[in-house]
Amino acid sequence: MPNTQVRSVKSTEGVNRIKRSPRKIRRLGLSLLAVILLGVIVFLLVPSPIEPVKWLAPTAPSFQKADPWKQNNKLSAAQLVSDAPQFPEFITFDKAGQLYTGDSDGKIYKVPFDAEGNPQKAQVFADTKGTPNGLKFDAKGDLIVTDIKMGLLSINQSGSIEVLANQVNGKPIYLANELDIAQDGSIYFSDTSNYGRVTFKEIAENKPHGRLLKYDPMTKQTTVLLEGLYFANGVALSADGDYVLVAESYHYQLTRYWLKGPKKGTSDIFADNLAGFPDNITRDEQGHFWVGIFTTRLSFVDQMHRSPWLAGIMAKVPESLLSGASAPAKHGLAAEFGPQGELIGSWHDPEGSLYGVTTAASHNGYLYIGTAPGGSKGVHRVLLTK
């Protein structure tokens, strides 16, 4: 005969455990909630690493209206030229029409073309051991490079590298980014930020840390032309060499510095309220400027600039957690401007197969597209049909 008394005791103990379990769960939940609330309070009380400046960013242009920013599919049919360079930040060509571009791992690639204009296998031309961004051939045929880690470099045809400048006025060139070369050999290039790296804190802070520099190959001296730029980026000279442009990525504008004429030594705004973050600038044979737009406008960034308190809070968030929020929108975009700053047209890939555009370079009937980490990979091109 079964022991009903023992069974009854065990049954009672099981019921008691079931009754106590919800209490334990509630206590555990309340403890966890208290820890979270304490963490939030501590997070809010910890001082922000920056002192943000309020900025009412202009309303972003619409891609739907019938204006030069109107959305189209001109970049959607892009052809892959080479996938050897993963992120071809900038694109230039030598006198023979061979394409050169740098990659984020330090390598600079050369891509030749056959008689029909078809791209051939990419070859490694040089390795800066840094991150080469801007590239341009000088009159001697040497490749001048702005490397964000190494400074301003010169690379001869055998691949030998010489550092031209990594300091100005006794202080470091923090982040040499893009360049152009004048007819007299002067090299104009951007020093993006004294932060020395790309960081979300800078965009949240909304203070200007960039510069436009000039290197004189005769005196081998580097001078500062402009300071106080909001993330100084792409650089391009006008066809006549009377001014030089520099992109201010974080304020969606192109700034013009006058080199000749009655305005010499002064600066003004060449184009403003761009539909995204302008990156590199190239000039075509018509004297027009092509601007790569790394990402279209990010609404949360514009909203953040309206509230220094919110910007300060965002700057405390670990950047590893913000990588997704600051990634480029999957919408390829490049813009063409006339010599007076007028927007002629825009080229889009709303499908997002080609995005994170840094460079748009017109060459032999094609528009060549470069990108940076965070965007699509490889060198692409599309026919220059209007």
Task: Describe this protein's structure.
It is globular and about 80 Å long. The termini are far apart. It has a single domain (79-383), classed as TolB, C-terminal domain (Neuraminidase, 6 Propeller). The chain is of the alpha+beta class and 386 residues long. It has a four-stranded antiparallel β-sheet with strand order 1-26-25-24, with no helix packed on it. Strands 2-3-4-5 form a four-stranded antiparallel β-sheet, with no helix packed on it. It has helices spanning 4-45, 200-205, 299-305, 308-314, 319-322, and strands spanning 79-82, 91-93, 99-102, 107-111, 123-127, 132-137, 143-147, 151-155, 161-165, 167-168, 171-172, 176-181, 187-191, 210-216, 221-229, 232-237, 243-248, 253-258, 267-271, 276-283, 289-296, 332-337, 343-349, 357-363, 366-371, 379-383. The chain has five helices and 26 strands. Mean pLDDT is 91; it is low at 4-10. Residues 177-262 form the Strictosidine synthase conserved region domain. It comes from Paenibacillus harenae. Pfam families: SSL_N, Str_synth. Belongs to the strictosidine synthase family. The chain crosses the membrane at residues 28-46.
Q: Termini distance?
A: 97 Å
Task: Find the count of extended strands (DSSP E, 2+ residues).
Answer: 26
Percent of sequence in beta strands: 35-45%
Architecture per CATH nomenclature, i.e. the level-2 architecture:
6 Propeller
